[in-house]
Amino acid sequence: MAKSKKSDYFGLGYVVSLILAIIPVTSWILGAVTRIMEGKWVAGILRIILGWNIIWILDIIFMALQKHILRLLNV
To answer: Is pLDDT above 80 for 26?
Structure first.
């Protein structure tokens, strides 16, 4: 039995996560929530402040190519 490949945004599938990453508001909110749930509070706060611009575009690129959102800070 093959394992299904999970992606970011609460372990949702790749296609659903990619669609959510393309929508600016959901990408901004879910990106911050995902990082805070990982215990990366500083990265989550930075996503709230800066997540509506270049980080959104990079999230789309990373999600399409590497199946996870941009990890700007791993602190």
So the answer is: yes
